[in-house]
Amino acid sequence: MDIAVFGDIHGNHSALQACIDYCMGKGITNYILLGDYISDCPGVRKTMDLIYVLRQYFTCYTVRGNREESMLNYRKSGENGWMKGSGSGALLYTYEQLTEKDFNLFEELPIYGIWNPKGSAGFEYCHGSPSNASELLFGDKRNTKRTLNKIKTNMLLHAHTHVQECFLYREKRAVNPGAMGLPRNKNCYAEFAIIHSGKTGWEEEMVQVKYDRHEILKEFQSSGLMEYAPAWAAITMHTIRTGVDLSESILLQAMKLCEEDRGMVRWPAIPEQYWAEALKENYVDLSGKDIPRPKHNN
To answer: Do 166 and 159 touch, CB atoms closer than 8 A?
Structure first.
């Protein structure tokens, strides 16, 4: 039995389609979907439609990610707090693309699941951790070891960190398939994993698939996402182009610049001038391309 494990699609339907095509070629009919299906990239509807097709025609074990929780919480809060601009514009854009069917799905999904039939090895799966969709489980960290100690099986499938890795601790494994939609690798290939059942349990295979990045990058302009969140769209496009994620450093820099200039800063109300300056200081332009760094004469 082979099962494909997809995580952190983030609205990149081009990457998702390429990975589905790869799995179809391998005859895989079982899928584990680990959450963060939407946000950041503009392909919200195409991504959700692909997920509905997978769930209709194949066996899918599906959980909710922190981005789906954010959408639900925003709705329950009375749609207060998000606005156009790079602070929260990408979230608002995503929210406005969702349908009642999407919200119903997100609401019914658990944040944790277990597959543990009698007579065979089982596994557990979640987005962040079994108890918190936003928890980061990096290999060799104390909370990862603590989580592995608590699981009932010998394998935990998780996502959220955008790092494709496998961590072994006391004969238990934490397997992260990587980020399908916003991969952090030199090739910028979409990442996922396949787990194979064997006589001694499950074995993981880490997969990287080339996909049409030009297609999804072109949609940033045609979708209107760049108008909703200019700098954040640039950061996301830069990640797709280079495999380097500068989101945290640019966000912190924009907040620092705002606080130094205005005496206070409160997310998401960070004026675009500070985002633009933070992008420039990280040598990224508004199309997500690298700005040539100045040459220093020795």
So the answer is: no
**End-to-end alpha-carbon separation of the chain, Å?**
59
The DSSP bridge pattern shows strands 123-126 and 112-115 to be antiparallel
Structure tokens given for 12: 């990149």
Angle (CA) 247 251 257, round 5°: 145
Strand bridging mode 172-176 / 155-157? parallel
What confidence score (pLDDT) does residue 199 get? 78
Residue (of 58, 174, 180, 54) closest to 123 by Cα position = 174
Positions of the chain with pLDDT under 70 = 297-298
pLDDT value at residue 261: 95
> Which pair of tokens denotes residue 164?
């494709």
Buried b (16+ CB within 10 A) or exposed e, 241-251: bbbebbeeebb
pTM of the predicted model, to two decimals? 0.95
In tens, the pLDDT along 155-167 reads 999 999 999 999 9
In the structure encoding, which two tokens stand for residue 36, read together? Answer: 């963060």
**Distance, CA of 103 to CA of 122 (rounded, Å):** 30
